[in-house]
């Protein structure tokens, strides 16, 4: 009996979003008379940070403090249409829609301010702290609250904007079948170090090391949070979770948390992450989206690490102790590949 | 079905409720008393999100017969803050980004609260053990472990 160390590597190109029907999302932005802005979306925040990121994007585009922006994702019946929170599309698609909506609202805000200050809107700029002033003359200034108030009660304007993001239709080349289904790719590489027990077939993860290229990390803490958590969801898919043995027939399959296994707090290992920023040309402020790809490279990397450790090539997930033991048996013993 | 009067303290306040025979504590807290801070995850004792403290010990509310808390002290997340001041665990969870969807959070907080009362200066292993009955799908646990260790420090600083 022995424990064998193994190291596995995987690299991925990850397409952001999908192309079905142009993968559109809409956003609506309007100001209230107190100068606070509301961003209405149907894009759901399930903890990944959709609200935080769209709030930052709206504030940046409008030129107002982030505290003055609210994001309402309350109801997909009454909100503007969104395809949904999946395929890592949120930051990219919805973020672009929010930029478009916020630009339109900003233009009206500046017109309202221009009317109050008796200048041309083209001569105005925002300071990001709630003021609009004449370029080069900060003294000639009005607050966004006062401009919104004037728009509402004096000028009869709605300070509002509409935005949509739609991927251009990608035709298929009849000769080659070539097309451009996706406009934006993110990239990642991951190394996993494990130990495999050749008597029990059990895997212990010693360390994860990864690099993720996510465009610009619009909210670095949220990006890190997703990468840390998502890696363990990937590990869970790789080594624990299964609907076996007869999926899609549920017979004898796991039905609850007693049988449907996932890693617990005692199973995790240190994860060293490098976040590489290479802003995407068509991303909102260069952002792509960490989303699903934080789980993806873990699966092939783990399968490769098992091969490195004991010479068993497993091509069906999850990589269970049983499969490892059967592989070792078929090979007539563990065949560590050794460090090259 | 017979209804039994049960009196206990919830986060320091006296409560008197009638409970159905067989009713579990989680239902009584949420539906009977309107304390929605303990969550229903699995209803069978495997996820930990319904964790509350009964006389200071973490207990799964979904598996606790409501009648058994008669005369005892039950604590939930609603009782963690001290007036307007959040519990050090709550501050630490926020600042360490220890929640994403937040579904596991109430159970994690209560399991951790029990640990810190017992062990004000816990090791990482003790933290891991304390939350080993709580499943988190989102965070990968690391930020939660870090938050609990951080909260222990904050708590000791506040006390001194
Ligand atoms: S709801 Fe009680 S353990 Fe899941
Ligand atoms: S934060 Fe989602 S389950 Fe823990």
Task: Characterize the structure shown.
In chain A, the strands form three sheets. Chain A has a four-stranded mixed β-sheet with strand order 1-9-10-11. A four-stranded mixed β-sheet of chain A has the order 4-3-2-8. Chain A folds into two domains: 3-15 and 184-330, Aldehyde Oxidoreductase, domain 4; 25-165, Aldehyde Oxidoreductase, domain 4, CATH 3.30.365. Chain A is built from six helices and eleven strands. By secondary structure, chain A is an alpha+beta fold. The relative contact order of chain A is 0.18. Chain A is elongated, with a radius of gyration of 26 Å. Chain B has 160 residues and is of the alpha+beta class. Chain B folds into two domains: 3-79, Ubiquitin-like (UB roll) (Roll), CATH 3.10.20; 88-159, DNA polymerase, domain 1, CATH 1.10.150.120. Chain B is built from five helices and five strands, in the order E-E-H-E-E-E-H-H-H-H. In chain B, a hairpin with a 2-residue loop joins strand 3 (51-54) and strand 4 (57-60). The radius of gyration of chain B is 16 Å and the shape is globular. The mean pLDDT of chain B is 96. The chains are: A alpha+beta (340), B alpha+beta (160). Chain A binds chain B through residues 46-48, 221-222, 224-226, 228-233, 256-258, 262, 264-266, 268, 271, and chain B through 42, 44, 46-47, 97, 99-102, 127-129, 131-132, 134-145. The structure holds FE2/S2 (inorganic) cluster (2 copies). The site of one FE2/S2 (inorganic) cluster has 12 residues of chain B, from loops.
């Amino acid at each position: 009996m022995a424990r064998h160390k193994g190291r596995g590597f995987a690299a991925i190109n990850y397409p952001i979003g999908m192309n079905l029907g142009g993968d559109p999302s809409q956003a609506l932005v309007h100001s209230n008379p107190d100068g606070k802005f509301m961003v209405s979306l149907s894009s759901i925040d399930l903890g990944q940070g959709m609200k935080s990121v769209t709030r930052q994007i709206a504030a940046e585009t409008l030129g107002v403090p982030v505290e003055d922006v609210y994001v309402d994702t309350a109801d997909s019946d009454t909100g503007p249409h969104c395809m949904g929170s999946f395929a890592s599309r949120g930051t990219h698609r919805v973020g672009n829609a929010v930029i478009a909506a916020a630009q339109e609202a900003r233009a009206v805000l500046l017109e309202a301010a221009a009317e109050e200050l008796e200048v041309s809107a083209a001569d105005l700029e925002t300071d990001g702290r709630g003021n609009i002033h004449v370029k080069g003359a900060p003294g000639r200034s009005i607050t966004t609250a006062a401009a919104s108030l004037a728009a509402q009660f004096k000028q009869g304007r709605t300070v509002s904007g509409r935005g949509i993001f739609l991927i251009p239709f990608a035709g298929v080349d009849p000769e080659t079948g070539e097309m451009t289904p996706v406009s934006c790719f993110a990239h990642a590489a991951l190394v996993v170090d494990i130990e495999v027990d050749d008597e029990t077939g059990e895997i212990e993860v010693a360390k994860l090391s990864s690099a993720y290229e996510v465009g610009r990390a619009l909210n670095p803490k949220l990006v890190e949070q997703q990468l840390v958590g998502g890696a363990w969801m990937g590990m869970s898919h790789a080594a624990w979770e299964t609907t076996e043995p007869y999926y899609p027939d549920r017979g004898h399959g796991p039905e609850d948390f007693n049988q449907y296994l996932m890693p617990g707090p005692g199973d995790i290992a240190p994860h060293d992450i490098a976040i590489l920023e290479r802003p995407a040309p068509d991303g909102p402020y260069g952002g792509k989206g960490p989303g699903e790809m934080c789980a993806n490279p873990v699966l092939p990397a783990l399968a490769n690490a098992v091969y490195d450790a004991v010479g068993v090539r497993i091509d069906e997930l999850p990589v269970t102790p049983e499969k490892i033991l059967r592989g070792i048996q078929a090979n007539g013993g563990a065949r560590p590949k050794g460090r090259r | 079905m017979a209804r039994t009067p049960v009196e206990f303290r919830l986060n320091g306040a006296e409560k008197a409720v009638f409970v159905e025979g067989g009713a579990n504590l989680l239902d009584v807290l949420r539906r009977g008393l309107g304390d929605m801070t303990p969550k229903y995850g699995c209803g069978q004792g495997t996820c930990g999100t319904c964790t509350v403290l009964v006389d200071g010990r973490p207990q799964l509310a979904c598996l606790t017969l409501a009648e058994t808390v008669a005369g005892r002290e039950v604590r939930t997340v609603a009782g963690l803050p001290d007036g307007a001041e959040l519990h050090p665990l709550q501050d630490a969870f926020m600042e360490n980004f220890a929640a994403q969807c937040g579904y596991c959070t109430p159970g994690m907080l209560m399991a951790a609260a029990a640990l810190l009362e017992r062990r004000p200066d816990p090791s990482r292993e003790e933290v891991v053990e304390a939350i080993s009955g709580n499943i988190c799908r989102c965070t990968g646990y690391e930020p939660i472990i870090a938050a609990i260790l951080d909260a222990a420090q904050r708590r000791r600083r506040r006390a001194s």
